[in-house]
Amino acid sequence: MNIQNLEAFLYVHHFGSVNKAAEALFLTQPSVSSRIRTLEKELNVALFERVGRSLVMTKEGKAFIPYAESIVQAYKSGQKRMKETAATDHIVIGVTGLIANYVMPYVLPKFKLAYPNVQITMHTGTTEEIESKVLHREVDVGFVRASAHPSLEKTAILQTPIRLFVSHPHHFENVPNISMEQLQEETIVFYECGSLDWTKVKNLFFNAAHVPTITYEVDSLETAKGLILENAGIGFLPEICVRKEVADGKVTSLDVPVVAKESLKAQMIHYIGEKPPYFDSLATWTKEIDRVSL
């Protein structure tokens, strides 16, 4: 009996919808339906039936739930035990671009000093890609923007303010509080990362009475920062990625009251009930980033 088919059955039961189950499993709807049909064929019973436009579990399906849960839990417990046995000398982490560039150079040397015999493998991707890898056990620990997946446990690790940065020198440097009206005359570099926090900043632009012109809209922090350093424009960036340039006097951080409360947040994730070795150490060192200069 295929564990993935059992998981599909339990997810459809949990969400009451094949479509929602497919989204949670990062699968297509036909793939989930196919897994359910295969399981029904193996059991020789119908687990669900259509009543109008609704999907209703049959009495056989309801009776099978505790057995499916028991099998899946036993499999995961065994898998966890095998991983614990094998994980003493290797850990696989998945990170977003911001974490890869501005957090891992601080964290990984500390990890290697504490655990010199442990091999580290790191994969970089989007939050959605890292979530999928954690769910499919391809990654032990994920570092993502924010996750709401029910099968993942989350730990808040980072909250970096979003601020306006200009290349030094700039005529804004002696202005105490920058308004949206003042930004209207500037060349704006806008970094688009797709997170909820960043969407709030973007909405401030488009909902302002005087809408600034976004000349450059990029999806790379390094590109956005490079444009600002070359004095091609000014822009909002997560504070963590410009600390060194601020310390070196190359760029200046400015206050813009309308974004004063906005920040970019990050979490660590792992499969629910399966906290991997070294997780707490990684979390501790990552949280230190808020208190150190990089």
TrEMBL record:
InterPro entries attached to this UniProt entry: LysR_HTH_N (IPR000847), LysR_subst-bd (IPR005119), WH-like_DNA-bd_sf (IPR036388), WH_DNA-bd_sf (IPR036390)
Say which species the protein is native to. Candidatus Pseudogracilibacillus intestinigallinarum
**For the HTH lysR-type domain, which residue ranges apply?**
1-58
Q: Show the PANTHER family listed in the entry.
A: HTH-TYPE TRANSCRIPTIONAL REGULATOR, HTH-TYPE TRANSCRIPTIONAL REGULATOR GLTR
Q: Which GO terms describe its molecular function?
A: DNA-binding transcription factor activity; transcription cis-regulatory region binding
Q: Keywords of this protein's UniProt record, alphabetized?
A: DNA-binding, Transcription, Transcription regulation
What does the sequence similarity comment in the record state about its family? Belongs to the LysR transcriptional regulatory family.
Q: Name the chain's protein.
A: LysR family transcriptional regulator
What CDD domains does the entry give? PBP2_LTTR_substrate
